[in-house]
Here is the input.
Amino acid sequence: MKKLALFGMSLTFALAACGTKATSPAATDDAAADSGAGTDDTAGSDAAVQDTAGTDAAALKDVAADVGTDIATDIAGDVTSAAKLASIARGKYLIDAVFACGVCHTPKGADRKPDMTKYLAGSTSYAFPMPDGTTNIVNAENITQDAVQGIGTWTDEQIAGGIRTGVDDQGVAFWPIMPYPEYALLTDLDVQAMVDYLRTVPANANVVPSDTFDPPSGDPPVASAKDSAIPHTTLAKSDPQFAAAERGRYLATGACIQCHTKEISPGVADFTMAFAGGRQHKATADAQLATSTNITPDATGLAGWSIADIVAAIKGNTNKAGQPLCDASPMGHGWMGDMTDGDLNDIATYIHTLPPIKNGPFTCYSK
Ligand code: HEC
Ligand code: HEC
Here is the structure.
């Protein structure tokens, strides 16, 4: 924990840059089949699979069109089952919409929109101010199938392990800006779906700049979040909306907690203050410090918001008054606004029925 203990400071985000080459993906057939039933939450995921994934060539073409390449050519040989195809489509949905991995792993162009020529090829950079006045830069890696710059040579287990435990193929822990402590609570099926989809992401040889410090190998990664630490909906089990809210809890744990919860130390969320805001971000090196808002239903948060208001905010990247949210928010179309109506409703039902926590109020650019 040496490297983590050093930084009691707020985290800032900056921007960096990014090419193409091909390796052949080594997808396996057992993928979708080998994961356990997981938790009760799995039910929600299954429903979304049906929502988003077709099981035929048309679905594959859709996935290919969205990625902007003919992945049919790259992976058709590996797609041996409808289950595999559904898993790939589910993985794409989770990566692009629900968890918006590209917020960090796809660079932004001059127009501040994601540069899709460098899709998942890195990087947004994160600048961590150090007590001695210097700044450590941490970059979100190239996670395309490039064998040299990306994760083309990693095994499925290594990729899944990276997502869930924050350790790379050499056993070195990641900086916990990546929300792996929360991703640890995802089901085996969903993690495998993301691995299956990442196998289809065309190799891109974009070179991500090195971090400006040496990660001390041997340091353990940040511990996984515990399910018992994540608040449940305040709805009674008998409430007709209870199941929707608990499906929302599963999604929001990976998608929303990291940004909307203050940290105890870098990457370690204070779950007693889950969703109560106050985490600070800096979208680019020269941007203002942005603070996330309290999204619990307290007067300092979203009291007075309806479920529909919350859905509208996620879809439109706007606040209740319809004003656009600041750049640090990853909602709206292109990211979390592209979730299915069912998932948006589940998340909003959960957020709307969280235990209220007094904290703030914060506005994005308040100090
Ligand atoms: C808030 C930013 C952020 C988000 C969101 C994020 N990552 Fe990361 N990720 C990073 C950073 C930064 C690193 C590199 C950490 C380091 O160098 O210590 C990383 C590293 C990785 C690695 C290891 C790559 C390597 O070569 O070492 C994988 C795999 C990965 N991320 C996958 C994902 C997936 C899949 C998602 C979405 C489910 C995701 N990440 C979401 C910031 C993020
Ligand atoms: C990358 C960080 C990040 C992630 C991930 C994130 N948010 Fe936010 N969110 C922010 C920031 C920063 C703001 C404040 C924007 C502003 O005030 O202009 C915000 C604002 C909001 C608002 C508007 C609150 C208000 O008072 O106007 C809602 C609602 C919201 N987020 C819900 C969510 C939900 C639900 C999720 C998960 C699906 C989520 N956010 C994921 C950073 C994030």
Q: What stands out?
A: The domain at 228-279+288-352 is CATH 1.10.760 (Cytochrome Bc1 Complex; Chain D, domain 2). The pocket of heme C (ligand 1) is lined by residues 95, 99, 101, 103-105, 126, 138, 140-141, 143, 151, 159, 162-163, 168, 174-175, 177-179, 194, 211, 215 (CB under 6 Å). The chain has two domains: 2-198, 228-279+288-352. Confidence is low (pLDDT under 50) at residues 1-55, 67-74.
